[in-house]
Amino acid sequence: MAKLKPILICAICAVLLSACWDQTEIEDRAFIFGMAIDVAKDSESKIKLTQQLVVPENIASATEGGVGGKAYRNLTGTGRTLYEVNREMSKEASRTLDSTHLGVVLFSEDLVEQKGKMKKYFDVFFRDKKMRRGIKLAITRGDAEELLFVEPEHEKIPAEYIKNLLENKKRIDVTDLVRIGDIDKKMFDGTSFPLPYLSRKTDTVVDYEGIAIYNGPEERMVGALKGEEAKGLSFIRGLKNNGTIDTEMDGEPLSIEIISIKRKIDLENKDPHHLKFTITVHILGAVADQSGSENLKEYKVLNKFRDKTEEKAEDMMENAVKKLQNDFQTDVMGLQEYISRHHPKIWKKVKDNWDSGENYFSKSEIKCIVNVTLQESGSINQTTTE
């Protein structure tokens, strides 16, 4: 028994001392749901950081039908680095700031248009072990902090509302690159990419305004595609988003609902100084809205609708290509990924001057082809207009 005493003492000590002595209790934490980064008004060398913290007791009172304060609290500070501002905010919050539930990060257009600024402040989201790779990222027109002050009708927390907006794929004119984990390699490899472009439309609504274009070699945002140009880019990237292609047939509105999209890229001429690409997009659709009196069971009618839809989609794609090649001189279409994967020898020759320097991207010839297949109309054969 005497021999067992030392063993028993060690076992008891191990149990008693194994508690998380450095753990921060949950009631002592302030959880960050959203973050906005702007240029400080008093100095371009400083940033303005706004962090949206959740107020749990107010969420509970709202759920139980009580009358309480807001379910969130916004803290704002300025400094030269995110760590510097965050340290001062921790004092104001009187709790330990916790980013494990951070859902969305917003960068203002004014900041991202400055060379290297976004990359500089983006770095912290990968060095901090608590940051999740699923955090949503977007660029804002105007001050980013304004979006964290909207009062959405069906959400208690603005940051949660914006996060859900960025996850919504029911529109064509949106981009697939919204997660921080999707763009980390592109950012640090100097590759160009698109990002969501948001704005505060009203006091209660944030608008998905278009697609921001970030030039990797220049390390800055060079512009944005909006409306049909943004839709055209989505077609080019082969995004499987929902939505409609809206056009006219014989002076009457025609809307084709998109069911699926498939994209194919082919390289015809392999001369680096005059590359020729063909981007073919196959769209499966159905007639969503048609105000004419045509019989939708007739093949000749569906063929007319198909031809008109193909023409409209090709126009949107070609307008997006012109904007990217001429105005922005930036490839966010996926051509770089295609060449590097399927034609590595050519890519080796052009990679250092793809969408910078000699800009082989802008010199390339890009042809867009759309093939539309329309499903039958369903239970309604035609609509009659008086």
Describe this structure as you would to a colleague.
With 386 residues, the chain is of the alpha/beta class. Helices cover 33% and strands 30% of the residues. It has helices at residues 4-16, 56-63, 82-93, 109-112, 117-122, 124-127, 158-167, 180-189, 227-236, 299-328, 335-342, 344-350, 360-363; strands spanning 29-39, 47-54, 72-79, 96-98, 104-108, 136-140, 193-200, 206-215, 220-226, 244-249, 252-269, 276-290, 365-374. A hairpin with a 5-residue loop joins β7 and β8. α9 crosses α10 and α11 (335-342) crosses α12. The radius of gyration is 26 Å and the shape is globular. The model is unreliable at 14-24 (pLDDT under 50).
Give the arrangement of secondary structure elements.
Layout (H helix, E strand, L loop, with lengths): L3 H13 L12 E11 L7 E8 L1 H8 L8 E8 L2 H12 L2 E3 L5 E5 H4 L4 H6 L1 H4 L8 E5 L17 H10 L12 H10 L3 E8 L5 E10 L4 E7 H10 L7 E6 L2 E18 L6 E15 L8 H30 L6 H8 L1 H7 L9 H4 L1 E10 L12
Helix pairs in contact: 9-10, 11-12
Number of strands: 13
Average pLDDT level: 86
What is the assembly state of the chains in this entry?
single chain
Radius of gyration equals 26 Å
Which band does the percent of strand residues land in? 25-35%
Question: Given the helix and strand composition, which structural class is it?
Answer: alpha/beta
Work out the helicity level.
25-40%
Globally, the shape reads: globular
**Helical element count?**
13
CA distance, first residue to last residue: 103 Å
Largest sheet: 9 strands, mixed
Helix and strand run: HEEHEHEEHHHEHHEEEHEEEHHHHE
